[in-house]
Amino acid sequence: MDSLEWDEAWSVGDARLDDQHKGLIGLINRLGSGAPVPIVLDELQIYVDEHFRDEERMMEAAGYPDIAAHKLQHAAFEEWLEASRQASRSGEVVGLLRDSISSYLKTWLVTHIMVSDKAYSGYLN
Ligand SMILES: [Fe+2]
After folding, report:
1. How many angstroms does the Cα of residue 11 sit away from the middle of ligand 1?
2. Residue 96, exposed/middle/buried by CB under 10 A (0-12, 13-18, 19+)?
3. Is residue 5 domain-resident?
4. Which residues are close to ligand 1, an ion, with C-beta < 5 A?
5. Which of 28, 52, 75, 112 lies 20 to 30 A from 69 at CA?
6. Ligand 1 mean position, distance from CA 33 (Å)
7. pLDDT tens digit string along 2-11?
8. How far is the CA of 10 from the centre of ligand 1 (A)?
9. Tens digit of pLDDT for each residue in 112-122?
10. Is 10 inside any structural domain?
């Protein structure tokens, strides 16, 4: 798999949140280069627990008007992650699971980070 590279155009204007988004790209690349699926899912859980809460705090502090809809997207991701972790524990075929996780995360990058996260960036600072 070609590895993904961070593009400055995806910046939300906050170094901490950008670093976290870069971390997600790193996880997608590790998944693509064969890192064990359960380990990537564990790291994804740690990532989400920290990153979604940081982002939601920043949006609240900035008075971002679409925060409720944004939180729903985060909740949907968390549900997907829980289902993926269960699939991984129940011995789902690893290759299939790896592909489906990878495509979900790439779609998330395009639809959430590049659209929904960019939408709040103008409200920060
Ligand atoms: Fe977000």
Report:
1. 12
2. exposed
3. no
4. 55, 117
5. 28
6. 25
7. 789 999 999 9
8. 12
9. 999 999 999 99
10. no
Burial class of residue 23 in the structure, from the number of CB atoms within 10 Å of its CB (0-12 exposed, 13-18 middle, 19+ buried): middle
Number of domains in the chain: 1
Q: What is the 3-state secondary structure (H, E, C) of the chain?
A: CCCCCCCHHHCCCCHHHHHHHHHHHHHHHHHHCCCCHHHHHHHHHHHHHHHHHHHHHHHHHHCCCCHHHHHHHHHHHHHHHHHHHHHHHCCCCHHHHHHHHHHHHHHHHHHHHHHHHHHHHCCCC
Distance from the alpha carbon of residue 92 to the mean position of ligand 1, in angstroms: 28
Distance CA 27, CA 45 (A): 11
Domain of residue 117, residue span:
36-121
Tell whether 18 is covered by a domain: no
